[in-house]
Amino acid sequence: MTxxxxxxxxxxxDNPQFIDLRSPVEYSEAHIPYSLNFPLLEDEERAIVGYxxxxxxxxxxxxxxxxxxxxxxxLLCNKIKETSNKREVVLYCxxxxxxxxxxxxxxxxxxxKHHRLEGxxxxxxxxxxxxxxxxxxxxxxxxxxxxxxxxxxxxxELRKQDFPAIDLEGLANHRGSAFGNVGLPKQxxxxxxxxxxxxxxLKYRNHPMxxxxxxxxxxxxxxxxxxxxxxxxxxxxxxxxxxMQNRVARLVGTYxxxxxxxxxxxxxxxxxxxxxRLGNKKTDxxxxxxxxxxxxxxxxxxxxxxxxxxxxxxDSPTDEYELSLFAGNFEHTVSELKSILI
Length: 342
Description:
It is a single chain. It is built from 17 helices and eleven strands. By secondary structure, the chain is α/β, with parallel strands linked by helices. The protein has a five-stranded parallel beta sheet with strand order 1-5-4-2-3, sandwiched between helices. It has a four-stranded parallel beta sheet with strand order 7-6-10-11, sandwiched between helices. Helix 3 packs antiparallel against helix 4 (58-69), helix 7 packs across helix 10 and helix 13 (264-273) runs antiparallel to helix 15 (280-291).
């Protein structure tokens, strides 16, 4: 049977599976992280119902909506039932209104266990806004270092080993530079970025700390919430450093590996965006190197002439940081870092 629950109660459930009943375009704009999209109405169908609502009447729109939904109900309810056999299901729509309520009534008749989220996605969005309005009091360890020293790889390894590490660039689908979006999907809208960051913070709510990579407040088009960013600035900073040779090799592997084919056009656009900073001669030379696929030369020039002067992190141990770690031996670096986090 149905159980109407608040967003706080839903987030406290043990491994819930949220099911988003909104249209694909609504889901793509923002949704509760890791929710499944089982749309009652496809985008075109929702547009038709919306037109009837405005041009005729709400009653006519509801009738049309039920006509569209009725043939879908058996398959949709079976999918929800299969999901509920494995995890606690939480249904939601935009505001917890007609769409989730209508499906919930059918599921009750079929005796399918589920929850319905009071307030829908809007309740989660309000929760996120309120979450980031509060001061972020958890200790934050911040990995600082020049481009290419492997900060993201270290974070990912810590995550694999169940340490509370948050990959902000991964959430934003952007590496935070002129080349930040090369080979990556489109960035999420700001409200979805915030929703995912909130979800990550909640996942580690029982940990005394969080580990992140140092970022500017803006990562591409996404902006880190002010109070979370302030906590990063005031956190404990750890320097990661490495040789130029290792940095170049690491970056070439990241931007040109087999999973990132056909990136040359994106790289060319990014290089041209730096023309004013690098000058025509150097920019044209980099573009010639790109035609030759000489990524090593491109990377080294960009590090020396653009990234390193821009970020200005030390490239050797310094007492300015809580700890300085050489990244040349990855396993040793992670082990040393873990020793101060435990």
